[in-house]
Amino acid sequence: MKKQFLSCCLSIGLLAGCxxxxxxxxxxxxxxxxxxxxxxxQFSNGYHxxxxxxxxxxxxxxxxxxxxxxxxxxxxxxxxxxxxPKLLKIIDxxxxxxxxxxxxxxxxxxxxxxxxxxxxxFTPTIIISVDDQExxxxxxxxxxxxVDDIDKxxxxxxx
Length: 159
Known about the structure:
By secondary structure, the protein is an alpha+beta fold. It has helices spanning 2-25, 33-39, 41-49, 54-61, 78-92, 114-117, 146-158, and strands at residues 29-30, 67-73, 98-103, 125-130, 133-139. The model is unreliable at 5-24 (pLDDT under 50).
């Protein structure tokens, strides 16, 4: 009985230690594209596997040079693993775009409090701005595709 109790305590302690290690290694706050792709295998794999069509590339190149993306995501989030690498490829198609990658913890917060200020509740949340004005958000997943959804937001803004 004493052995089982000690074994149970040891298991709980190991699980708690694993949880602490995950939290300590979780990216939080600003992270560069290079840091993300070099430290997170799932994001790197998704980035290298995704390719824009010629039509999508042509569409992206028509967007205003002042297009900016604030990307709130979790390195632990499967929706982020799927969508953020695709967005990075889209950004590659027009080097004039700017972006900021902001990694969140499980509570959807980060040290500077920007996620709370911008009312981010789900990951990823991609905030699209043109000329420093928010034109729309993609939350968790696009309706049709990232390119199509962003294009519609930009066209609606410019109408």
